[in-house]
Target: Leishmanolysin-like peptidase
Amino acid sequence: MELRIRRNRCAEVALLPRFELNFALVCVKVLLVLLILEAALATTKEFRLQVQVLEQDKENTVSHSCIHDQIIEQRKRPGRKVYSVSAQVYAEPDVFKSRQRRGRVLLDVSERPKRHTDAKQPIRIYLNYDAVGHSSDRDCRNVGDIVKLGEPTGASYSGKPSCNPQGDPPIFGDCWYNCTQDDIAGVDKKHRLRKALEQTADWFRRALSVEPVRGNLRLSGYSACGQDGGVQLPREYVEEGVANADLVLLVTTRPTTGNTLAWAVACERDQWGRAIAGHVNVAPRHLTAEAETLLSATLIHEVTHVLGFDPHAFAHFRDERKKKANSGDRTSYG
Ligand SMILES: *[C@@H]1O[C@H](CO)[C@@H](O)[C@H](O)[C@H]1NC(C)=O
Model:
């Protein structure tokens, strides 16, 4: 994957074009440091609870917490799959093609190997909203509906543990949630959701280039994609695949507690460990006009987690030749 920051705030600071790359690199580094810091802080749950309580004290300050690590920990519980693997077909890199031909073709003066960067194209993120409002045990449809948040014990509502948006009592997962008016994704909220996610997909198209999938993106649909019950992939995505896509995001609008605005997780990877499908949840409570800027920033942050900025995904990172970065026989590749 190639990260190309073009039109973000950090790059705009650059006065001369040749400095742009330096600024972009600084920007990426800052992003990485922030994510690593976040991962480190998230390991101490007490600290996070303190932060949430502190943030709730500041009534007019808009803030959000990231529960990504908590989600990943939940996915590692026995009997749960972190993600499934579906092999994809990619165009053969031009570098290999020209190398193969060199041995057989004697007079090949006219053909010049294409520039390596030509192999990469802006990432195509396909957004699917089919699941919005269609999960009866998890989506708020009416005020007073009791829905599942996380995986509370017992098959049906038992009253305990119960939770609410105020975080009082301070229960932030695996509980029965009592829906309020703000938790229902009406027409306005659905419109804001689409707008924000389309902007996010657009941001990534400008910032990130990948080796494009050749033909349809193939998904396995082996189990529900994502977290907290996840989302079932449409059958045609599995049987025929998804055209013009490098990453499919299945969107839900299920409630969250505390100040968690949205969360996201990868659910399928290709044979090289690249994320090809993920689940993004945005809490209807935060789909307001006031939270628009914060929402955009949060969604970019969340999709970055899907794409691999996740301490648990670092082991899947590959170098240019798709060799695992931290495998033992590094010497043979220099
Ligand atoms: C849910 O909240 C409403 C409003 O606060 C309340 O009247 C109702 O009893 C609650 N339902 C449950 C099952 O606790």
